Amino acid sequence: MKAFAKRFLLSSAFLCLLAGGCAGGSFSSPKESNMQILTIGTADSGGTMYPAGKALAQAISDSNGLIKINLSASNGSASNVRALMRGEVDLGLVSGDIAFAAVNGRDEFEKEPAEKLRAIAAVYPSLSNWLVLSEEDIEWVHELKGANIGIGPADSTTAFTAMLALGKLGIDADNASLTNCGLGTGADGVRDKKLTAVHGFAGIPIASFAALADDTPCRILTYTDEELRSIIREGSFYYRDVIPAGTYEGQTEPVPTFGIKCLLCVSADMDEELVYTLTSILYEKAPELKGLHGALAAMERKDFLYTELPIGLHAGAERFYREQGLLEHTD
What we know:
Elements: H1 2-17, E1 36-41, H2 49-63, E2 67-72, H3 77-86, E3 91-95, H4 96-104, E4 117-133, E5 148-152, H5 157-168, E6 177-180, H6 183-191, E7 197-202, H7 207-215, E8 218-220, H8 225-232, E9 238-243, E10 255-267, H9 272-292, H10 302-306, H11 315-323
Parallel strand pairs: 1-2, 1-3, 5-6, 5-7
Antiparallel strand pairs: 3-10, 4-7, 4-8, 4-10, 9-10
């Protein structure tokens, strides 16, 4: 770690001397100081992105007196990608599926691909959660055939992933009742027995699911290994994970599931030394970040940060991970 410490000091010194900026128009260097001011694009305050972005900004700002991170609320991942490419923000939180589509010119980015989008690190996962009352004689997602299921808000990632997963399990609108609903409404529906199960695809624990599990015995449904392999083959942005034991009241065992990583992204044009410094801070501060926001607990698993990413790492981030000996077997 001596080499890392030396590199970190050199990177910090670089920030002192840096008078220009990164690709983002908000990256500035006030004349009266050497402070570097960066802006991170998040989302609205109702989801995971905004508080997670706030926690990341606090950790970086507290770790290096020469960097200050401002928050920019947005409409979420796609908006953050466009803002990064236009230089309106310096960093942005981007869901892995959106990052993949942006870099590869898919879906809404077909006419305007974001080929320079790069990752610094994965910071939290959105995981597939299926919640039922414990009194239901159900343990597997595939047992929901014939049930009344809350799949998530219309046109949401939660609903899309629910439909994808159910389709792989042979469940569709012909053999089950699929209801669009918010996560809170869905949890209420399970509690009131209007729904057999509700699906959530978000950072864990999902607040409304946790609240229900605190009041009423509940169970998180699981997938078989074969089912997970089938689902994950549908997109390079999906990966296998678990909902750790104790995430919800009464959950005594880890539950295998799948998810998408939310990435802290930048433009490939951002200065390599600056990205190296930001990466080193996140790597060192990972154990503390979960105390700032529970969804960031996944960052404690060091390989979560840099493996199974749907887009490439920025050169500065890649150099940091490589110097730590973390990428030598993943080339």
